């Protein structure tokens, strides 16, 4: 199992005394893998190096060490080495059930290389050959479901590497203020606001709201942006109801120099004051002049059959706000819009740029 802190130091000391201690080398591989999962990218390379050394120094070929080597190679993005290690583990296995670990792991490697049908066929045979209560068979079934779920998703991006906005985006202008592409970014910049808001949406983003998964963008306020008096720039999603009113609106960005989120979720039929409002966002080390990665994502909650979602708002990769959604469910059919916006008081000066827009959605299958 993976080690950390004092345990890792103990392993390191053991290896300083005896650098061919296979058990300690294997444990160090697991410890480095734990570090890699926490975001220390270089640790994935170290984990793979320790796993390779454990295999090389073993007195006799070991199924467990080959499996370890395959996992660490896969995490280090070396599909060929991972498949070779899992194949070696399979060939050493003493019975059919143990062989299925190597076969199943190899199927996942093949899936990562685009061999979807071949991988699914192997996993399907696993579910048929292994008992229903077998943990490995249950893993195969869960992996098949994940593959099917992934096949229903698609990702769209826009890096604004073109001379003008084009037809992909539509929006409004505010006197002389409008969207334009400059140096590979979508920019809202002018002498001053007149009406006080500019909103541009990605055309045909999500035709049915139930298919929305996530939207993200990188935003940076420029040196000429005038802060105060209600200025607010950022990323949003919204859905209009049958009466033309906005029934769902989430906006994440910088308001008056600080991170902020505005939300409205459903009709306020009962005058529930919590149905909408501002939420302060805490971003450690926040620098108003820096580029910021914003994301709005929905994740399933509760019973999958209930088709209920929770909203996760992220800032530079960290979730900074969570909310159980009422209006946006797995049954919502109206269009969901993804927007980039700038607000400000009349005659205030906007200067904000957007880049690396990305949208995740389910394919529109009735």
Secondary structure layout plus pairing:
Layout: H1 6-17, H2 22-37, H3 41-57, H4 63-75, H5 79-92, H6 96-112, H7 116-129, H8 135-151, E1 153-158, E2 169-171, E3 179-182, E4 185-189, E5 197-202, E6 212-221, E7 232-240, E8 246-255, E9 258-265, E10 276-280, E11 292-301, E12 308-315, E13 318-329, E14 336-343, E15 351-362
Antiparallel strand pairs: 1-15, 2-5, 3-4, 4-15, 5-14, 6-11, 6-15, 7-8, 7-14, 8-9, 9-10, 11-12, 12-13
Overview features:
366 residues, alpha+beta, eight-stranded antiparallel β-sheet, 15 strands
Detailed description of the structure:
With 366 residues, this protein is of the alpha+beta class. 33% of the residues lie in helices and 32% in strands. The chain has eight helices and 15 strands. The strands form two sheets. Strands 1, 3, 4, 6, 11, 12, 13 and 15 form an eight-stranded antiparallel sheet that branches. Strand 7 (232-240) and strand 8 form a beta hairpin. The radius of gyration is 26 Å and the shape is elongated. The protein starts with 5 loop residues before the first helix and ends with a strand.
Fraction in helix:
25-40%
Radius of gyration: 26 Å
* Distance between the ends: 45 Å
Principal-axis shape? elongated
- Major sheet attributes: 8 strands, antiparallel
Mean pLDDT: 88
Number of helices: 8
Number of strands: 15
Low-pLDDT parts are none
What structural category do the secondary elements indicate? alpha+beta
Order of helices and strands: HHHHHHHHEEEEEEEEEEEEEEE
Task: Please indicate the percent range of residues in DSSP E strands (runs of 2 or more).
Answer: 25-35%
């Amino acid at each position: 199992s993976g080690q950390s802190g004092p345990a890792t130091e103990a392993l390191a000391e053991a290896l300083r005394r005896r650098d061919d201690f296979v058990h300690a080398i294997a444990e160090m591989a697991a410890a480095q893998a734990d570090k890699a999962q926490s975001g220390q990218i270089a640790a994935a390379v170290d984990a793979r190096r320790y796993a390779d050394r454990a295999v090389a120094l073993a007195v006799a070929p070991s199924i467990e060490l080959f499996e370890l080597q395959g996992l660490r190679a896969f995490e280090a993005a070396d599909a060929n080495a991972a498949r070779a290690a899992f194949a070696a583990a399979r060939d050493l296995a003493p019975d059919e059930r143990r062989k299925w670990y190597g076969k199943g792991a190899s199927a996942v490697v093949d899936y990562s290389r685009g061999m979807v049908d071949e991988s699914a066929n192997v996993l399907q045979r696993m579910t048929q050959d292994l008992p229903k209560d077998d943990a490995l068979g249950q893993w195969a079934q869960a992996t098949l479901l994940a593959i099917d779920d992934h096949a229903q998703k698609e990702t769209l991006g826009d890096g604004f590497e073109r001379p003008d906005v084009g037809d992909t985006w539509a929006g409004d202008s505010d006197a002389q203020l409008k969207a334009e592409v400059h140096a590979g970014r979508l920019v809202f910049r002018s002498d001053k606001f007149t009406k006080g808001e500019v909103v541009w949406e990605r055309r045909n983003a999500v035709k049915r709201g139930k298919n929305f998964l996530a939207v993200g963008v990188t935003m940076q306020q420029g040196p000429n942006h005038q802060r105060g008096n209600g200025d607010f720039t950022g990323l949003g999603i919204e859905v209009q109801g049958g009466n033309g009113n906005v029934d769902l609106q989430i906006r994440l960005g910088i308001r008056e120099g600080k991170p902020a989120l505005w939300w409205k979720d459903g009709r306020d039929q009962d005058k529930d004051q919590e149905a909408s409002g501002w939420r302060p966002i805490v971003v450690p080390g926040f620098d108003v002049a820096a580029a910021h990665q914003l994301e709005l994502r929905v994740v399933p909650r509760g019973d999958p059959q209930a088709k209920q979602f929770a909203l996760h708002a992220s800032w530079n990769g960290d979730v900074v706000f969570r909310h159980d959604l009422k209006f946006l469910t797995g049954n919502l059919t109206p269009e969901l819009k993804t927007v980039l916006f700038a607000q400000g008081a009349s005659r205030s000066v906007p200067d904000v740029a957007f880049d690396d827009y990305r949208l995740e959605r389910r394919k529109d299958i009735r």
